[in-house]
Each structure stands twice: as C-alpha cells, then as structure tokens.
C-alpha cells in the first residue's frame, strides 16, 4: 500500500475496481483546512480520463508494473501489433490504449507498461519526439511571414501537424508526441 505522498506521473493504481494511470497530479496545501492531492487519472482498460481528489495521507493501492521496449510493426484496423525488442514475442494492442497513434511510424520503439501480476499490457509510452516526413502541404506564399504563420501539413503516418510556412513536401520534421506539435526541421 502506498499513500498520497507517493503519487507521481505514470504511477498505476487500483481504484474503483479498475486500474488507472496517473496523468497529472498537484499537491495542494490550502491556508485553511487539510492538504490534498488533485489528480487526473486515465483508465488503462477503457481510456476514460477522470478527475479525483485524494485527502493527504489517504492509502492507495499501487499496481506493480514493468516497462519493456516494444517495436511497432503494423496496424490492422483498430489493432496495433508490437514486438518485444529482447525476446521477440509479439503483442496486439487496441488503438484506445495509445496516446497519439497517428504519430506512430513502423519500426518505432515504444515503452509498454506490463502488469507484473498477469503480464497484461497496461499502457504505452511514446518517445518524446518522432521524426516524420511531410507528404503533403501547400506551398508557402512569400511575404506572409510577418508573424509566426503556420499551415497544415500531412505526415507520412497520416497525421496533420501545423508547420511554419517554409516547410515543403519531402522535408523531415521533429514532432513532439505529447502535444502533436512541430519542433524543428531535421537536416539529414
């Protein structure tokens, strides 16, 4: 058993007969009254996000997890297939478990949290940045650069990312996976 002082981002806990992953948390100590922890929890089975507040010192049941590297192989409808990077076992995960499946490129290595009790996958952590090639974007108009103007660009995975006007088709860009935003153009 853990307490609210052990809450951190990525912690998996058992709550309301389900397993939840802590997405966000904030320790609050008001001037009047007892301290508490405000959390945002994501169900690893349904993908539903809930807000919950725990009073300070509240006991929570944490779930022991292991993190393993898995390489993304291919999609099949709403199912994504991965291969363990060490023992080459394959697993299939539903699209709802992934945070940003539209940024996942074949061959990309992700971290999968596995429940140590039954070996079932709980969640997938994407790398912080991915490098993708722009397959389609409108050409930028010269003179439209007075402000930080952006335009939509379609990536090789089908994701649409807003990019600066100087990005052209065929360019490779770095995309932040958490927000799905452009970071920089990548030179080869």
Structural features, described:
With 188 residues, this protein is mostly beta strands. Helices cover 0% and strands 54% of the residues. It has 3 domains: 2-62, Roll (SH3 type barrels); 65-125, Beta Barrel (OB fold (Dihydrolipoamide Acetyltransferase, E2P)), CATH 2.40.50.140; 129-186, Beta Barrel (OB fold (Dihydrolipoamide Acetyltransferase, E2P)). The protein has strands at residues 2-3, 12-15, 18-28, 36-43, 49-55, 59-62, 65-76, 79-84, 90-94, 109-115, 121-125, 129-137, 150-155, 160-164, 172-176, 181-186. The strands form 3 sheets. Strands 1-6-2-3-4-5 form a 6-stranded antiparallel β-sheet, with no helix packed on it. The protein has a 5-stranded antiparallel β-sheet with strand order 9-8-7-10-11, with no helix packed on it. It is flat.
Class inferred from helices and paired strands = mainly beta
Rg over CA atoms, rounded to whole Å, is 20 Å
Helix content: under 10%
| Distance between the amino and carboxyl termini | 50 Å
CATH topology of the largest domain: SH3 type barrels
Number of structurally distinct domains: 3
- Which percent range describes the beta-strand content? over 45%
Order of helices and strands: EEEEEEEEEEEEEEEE
Q: How many helix segments?
A: 0
Net shape: flat
CATH architecture of the largest domain: Roll
For the secondary structure, the number of strands is 16
The main sheet comes to: 6 strands, antiparallel
* Average residue-wise pLDDT: 85
Residue windows where pLDDT falls under 50 for at least 5 positions: none
Q: Spatial order of the strands in the main sheet?
A: 1-6-2-3-4-5
CATH class of the largest domain: Mainly Beta
Protein name: Elongation factor P
Main location: cytoplasm
Pfam families: EFP, EFP_N, Elong-fact-P_C
Subcellular location: Cytoplasm
